[in-house]
């Protein structure tokens, strides 16, 4: 149920902030990062090991994009 609420909130914020539907969009990138962080937080509550793994994946993705 939490994931469905998170998805709906993300979709609503994308519309409110007028994020582009395709191509490079800083607004979309920021909102997806926030959504991913919240998803990691929710998963970490249930399974700290999975939360840690997802955190490492997120950090690796950020470093790859920055490079």
Structural description of this entry:
- The protein is mainly alpha-helical.
- Helix content is 82%, strand content 0%.
- The protein is built from 3 helices and no strands.
- The chain has helices at residues 2-16, 26-46, 48-66.
- Helix 1 runs antiparallel to helix 2.
- The longest helix has 21 residues, at 26-46.
- The protein is flat, with a radius of gyration of 13 Å.
- The N and C termini lie far apart (36 Å).
Please render the helix and strand layout as text:
Layout: H1 2-16, H2 26-46, H3 48-66
Helix pairs in contact: 1-2, 2-3
Annotation keywords:
flat; mainly alpha; 67 residues
Strand content: under 5%
Residue windows where pLDDT falls under 50 for at least 5 positions: none
The 3D shape can be described as flat
Distance between the termini: 36 Å
In DSSP terms (H or I, runs of 4 or more residues), the helix count works out at: 3
What is the CA-atom radius of gyration, in angstroms?
A: 13 Å
Q: Structural class per helix/strand content?
A: mainly alpha
Helical amount: over 70%
- Mean pLDDT, all residues: 90
In short:
With 67 residues, the chain is mostly helical. It has helices at 2-16, 26-46, 48-66.
